[in-house]
């Protein structure tokens, strides 16, 4: 079968588990919107993990909020859906009974839960280590080599080596060094292009080129007063503006259900974080609307 997932730590851990329990001929990385917009052809030979449901697939695992934009299985389906901290947790629960060997990945699973559900400490953000650090290197924006090749290499490495040895691999070291370097300038640019509006910190990277790369949680260390963030930057070919909303991971009082709010703009996500693409010509009006709503929710 073919495994179709997304290229973050959650997708990586799903891939470690699924390739350990199923015969997988190919791993494909896509964006969740490729499913919702029908840009990707799914067949019954596909296992979808950490992605929205497609009625054409053979097996499905996910943990994201279901919104009106999503298909949902109308009858029994193979796989599992649950509102768990990570899709990897859902996959693990499905397979571990018949595959007790998965138990050796307990730490990987717990750390995947923490990163995917953003249950991080200030120290995880300012000085990430082990699996959290590895998860942060899974960012195509580091601009180092092929992201897919890197992802596939990590799937095999995590099965063979302890985390210390994985972090010692040259490709991983190159990326962690770059991350540390990028975080410093990202912090300065975030400070310069953000403003606090009530409980909302709004970061506008549309006038910053190249797009700054860095830890998305840094903004919450810079604006501890905010309980929610909205960050925008140009989408592909400047035809759209990518918007990302997230609850502060240190000031957890926002009442917005982000996935539902994003679904009203064609996107999706979780209770605490989500994304959408805004048409370029309406972006400013939609951004103002989003900020108003986030303030109103409080
Ligand atoms: Mn996930």
CATH class of the largest domain reads Alpha Beta
Distance between the termini: 46 Å
List segments where confidence is low: pLDDT < 50 over at least 5 consecutive residues: none
What Rg do the Cα atoms give? 19 Å
Work out the strand percent. 15-25%
Number of separate domains: 2
Share of helix among residues? Answer: 25-40%
- Global outline: globular
Q: Encode the helix/strand succession as letters.
A: EHEHEEEHHHHHHHEEHEEHEEH
Q: Helix- and strand-based class?
A: alpha/beta
Query: What is the count of DSSP helices, taking H or I runs of 4+ residues?
Result: 12
CATH architecture field of the largest domain: Alpha-Beta Complex
Largest sheet: number of strands, sense, barrel closure: 6 strands, mixed
Protein architecture, described:
The chain has 298 residues and is of the alpha/beta class. The chain has two domains: 2-170, inorganic pyrophosphatase (n-terminal core), CATH 3.90.1640; 193-297, Diaminopimelate Epimerase, Chain A, domain 1. It has twelve helices and eleven strands. It has helices at residues 9-21, 32-36, 87-95, 106-116, 122-126, 130-137, 147-160, 163-167, 170-192, 218-222, 258-263, 283-297; strands at residues 2-5, 26-29, 46-49, 59-62, 79-81, 194-197, 200-204, 228-234, 240-247, 268-269, 273-279. The strands form two sheets. Strands 6-7-8-9-11-10 form a six-stranded mixed beta sheet. Strands 2-1-3-4-5 form a five-stranded parallel beta sheet, with helices on one face. Strand 7 (200-204), helix 10 and strand 8 (228-234) form a beta-alpha-beta unit. The structure holds manganese (II) ion. Manganese (II) ion binds at residues 10, 50, 63, 86-87, 116. Residues 10, 50, 63, 86-87, 116 line the site of manganese (II) ion.
